[in-house]
Amino acid sequence: MEKIDANGLIRRIFTPTIVLSLSYLILGHFCNIPHILLFCILGTVILVPMELGIILSASKRENGAYSLKSAFVGQEKLQRWKILIIAFVFFGAAGLLSAYVAPLENQFFAQMRAELLHRLPIGFDWTNFEYMKLFSKPIRILTCIYYSIFNVLIAPITEELFFRGYLTSHYKKQSSFLPILIAVLFSLYHFWLPFNNVFRILAFASVAYVAYKKKNLYISICFHCLCNLFSAVCFAAAIL
């Protein structure tokens, strides 16, 4: 199994997100569709292929065939009901963090966020639901459908395979602190959501640690999908 050093880790994490973020930033200035829809499309054609491509290439080198095996190195089976219970417990904890920590973080960065968004076209503010309602209902429905598919299934599964699976198992310095480090880097790689790092790190670090100790990637996959499902439902309710 190939081992990843610190430089390799940083390069693998931030190259895909830099390409995605720059593409989104440039194309967003000429966008005639909801920006969040544009982002999901770009994520589908840029971020997902790049991250899965790294896993597939590693599997080819390690196992002789393109597969996702490199994301499941050292994984052990766990009963489905245990996976779901653990995921729901951490989902509940994330709910408490969103109620008590996220608002404080949003308040702390409110002025910085406002100044940044003031320099960008209005569509870059995904929380401006009044702007979203200016689009026709079919466009809003399409946006909700695509956003839900991408944000609830495609993106979180890909990211968990990449971060909690491939990167965590292949980093050469294995330790109990590693899942925390990966969680921090995972949060920082969200260039398109730069003002939620405290909430994101607190929400993902603990479940990443448990998934690492239990040697079961499906714990963090289920948790991530649950969190994004809640976000997708709230988004749809706000713009439809």
List keywords for this structure.
240 residues, mainly alpha, 10 helices, globular
Per-chain topology:
Blueprint: H1 6-27, H2 35-63, H3 80-100, H4 102-108, H5 110-118, H6 129-132, H7 137-170, H8 178-188, H9 197-214, H10 217-239
Helix pairs in contact: 1-2, 2-7, 3-9, 3-10, 7-8, 7-10, 8-9, 9-10
Give a description of the structure:
The chain is mostly helical. Helices cover 74% and strands 0% of the residues. The protein is built from 10 helices and no strands. Helix 3 packs antiparallel against helix 9 (197-214). The longest helix has 34 residues, at 137-170. The protein starts with 5 loop residues before the first helix and ends with a helix.
Shape: globular
Regions with pLDDT < 50 over 5+ consecutive residues? Answer: none
Largest sheet: none
Reading the helices and strands in chain order gives HHHHHHHHHH
Helix content: over 70%
* Count of separate DSSP helical elements: 10
Number of strands: 0
Brief rundown of the structure:
The chain has 240 residues and is mostly helical. It has ten helices and no strands.
